[in-house]
Amino acid sequence: MTAAGRTAPAGRNAPAGHGPPGHGPGPGTRIGARAAAVIALSAAYLPGARRRSSGPGPLPDGAAAIVAFAGPMLVVGGSVLRTRARWQPPPSLLGRLMLGGHVASGAVLEELLWRAPLTVPRSRGAGTVAAGVSAAGFLALHVRRDGRPSVPVHAVTTASWTVAAVLGRRVRWSILSHALYNFLVLSLRRPDGPQPDEARWPPR
Question: DSSP letters along 133-162, please?
Fold first, then answer.
């Protein structure tokens, strides 16, 4: 089901993890599996996080937050202007909580997997290579899911989250930005015609 309670079409155009009823695990199972993965990744990341962030990164914390949110919010704003979409989150509190849990667990999981390793201090050359490999992998997986038209959008969001993590030496801002971005995207509805997520704009 989509965020508005309408069934999303099966296949690549449907939001990730959403398919026809009776196919695949339910929302609770998906969130639980993600939570388990987050716990495992956190156990590997958190012990050294305090040491890595004990000193200021190349980018001040406030600037890292701006970088993390700038690209994704630009994408959402461009989508609203382009498609005249409106923000329509699930009407019920339970629906909003379920959507929030879905996007938050996904954002934490992806940021711990793709961006957390980039917070380890490295030489400039090694850090640049690591950031490039991480960004390329993240971009490739999402473009494979959403198609080539999604390349510019995913490039913008990936760049924002990667730069914020590398130069800020923290993933909290990329996690918050990623979760908010996905929540907004899944809550956008066009006045008429296909939904933005079905048209893959903006993709998640």
Answer: HHHHHHHHHHHHHH-GGGHHHHHHHHHHHH
pTM of the model: 0.72
Residue 51: what pLDDT? Answer: 54
Tell me if 37 sits within 8 A of 109, measured CB to CB: yes
Nearest 5°: the CA angle 121, 69, 122 is 10
Instruction: Give pLDDT, residue 127.
Output: 87
Residue 2's CB is within 10 A of a number of other CB atoms, namely: 19
151-195, pLDDT tens digit by residue?
Answer: 999 999 999 999 999 998 889 999 999 999 999 999 988 776 555
Residue with tokens 């934490």: 108
Q: How would residue 83 be classed by pLDDT, with cut points 50, 70 and 90?
A: confident
Q: How many CA atoms lie within 13 A of 87 on its CB side?
A: 9
Helix-, strand-, coil-residue percentages of the chain, each rounded to 5: 65, 0, 30
- Only one residue has tokens 């005249």, namely 84
Cα separation values, 181 from 57, 121, 122, 124, Å: 25, 28, 29, 30
